[in-house]
Design brief:
Elements (H helix, E strand, L loop, with lengths): L8 H9 L12 H17 L6 E5 L5 H8 L3 E6 L2 H14 L4 E5 L2 H7 L4 E7 L8 H11 E12 L3 H14 L16 H10 L2 E12 L4 E5 L5 E8 L3
Length: 237
């Protein structure tokens, strides 16, 4: 891999190894299947997806990209994990999902090729897996049209998030494979909001995501102490 590409080869290998399990709702990706309706509804409420040009950065096996296409958007999903992309493409063929395409390319490279192309850009559960998250935020800001929306979700960095997202989710409840997350790569909301402001993205809304291990249910709330989502809009020139 090009040493200038903003990706961790170990992270790509990790997700490639699990690629064949992306669309099994009882697999390691069960949490993604469970939270997908929540984040899809939130995105669609703030930036109605029907008829929009949408980019999903770090799309993996296509769980969100596929759902946004089914909401009526024209979706391009991008990732650098080739095996996961093949799974996404295969699923789109099998499920006959309309208006969705996938491409192996970095956000930064696509921003060079197609600036200001998209109405909506999503970058979910991805920033905590790259060496330089600010570079991805900058690319997302370049890719969206002025006035367009960019959505991020990631994990806060504090003792509670270490306890919940790593110890709890990976070791106690085994919701995720051990080693899925690295605490040092977690990002505080204030840090992510700072990256956004620096690129001309204006924060419009914030939500937290919580989980009850007894009911095995996720919901959106005002608590951003562990998982959280940011909705931003590119400032009109």
């Amino acid at each position: 891999m090009d040493k200038n590409v903003n990706a961790d080869p170990a992270e790509l290998a990790k997700f490639s190894e699990l690629a064949h399990r992306w669309w099994d709702p009882e697999s390691e990706f069960r949490p993604l299947h469970q939270i997908n309706p929540l984040r899809l509804e939130w995105i669609d409420r703030l930036a109605p997806l029907e008829g929009r040009e949408v980019l999903d950065v770090g799309c993996g096996g296509g769980i969100l990209a596929d759902a946004m296409a089914r909401k009526g958007a024209n979706v391009l999903g991008i990732d650098l994990a080739g095996k996961a992309l093949k799974v996404a493409q295969l699923h789109a063929l099998e499920a006959e999902t309309p208006r969705v395409q996938y491409r192996e390319v970095s956000a930064e490279q696509l921003a060079e090729e197609q600036p200001e192309r998209f109405d909506v850009v999503t970058c979910m559960e991805m920033l905590e897996h790259v060496p330089d998250p600010s570079s991805v935020v900058r690319a997302c800001a370049r890719l969206v049209k002025p006035g367009g929306w960019v959505f991020f979700s990631t994990i806060n960095r504090n003792p509670k998030s270490f306890l919940f997202a790593i110890v709890g989710a990976e070791y106690v409840l085994q919701l995720l494979p051990k080693g899925t997350h690295e605490y040092a790569k977690f990002i505080k909301p204030s840090e992510l909001a700072g990256h956004c402001r620096a690129t001309g993205l204006q924060l419009q809304a914030t939500r937290g995501m919580e989980y009850n291990p007894l009911t095995r249910r996720y919901w959106l709330s005002g608590d951003t102490s562990v998982n959280y989502l940011l909705a931003t809009q590119r400032v009109l020139a």
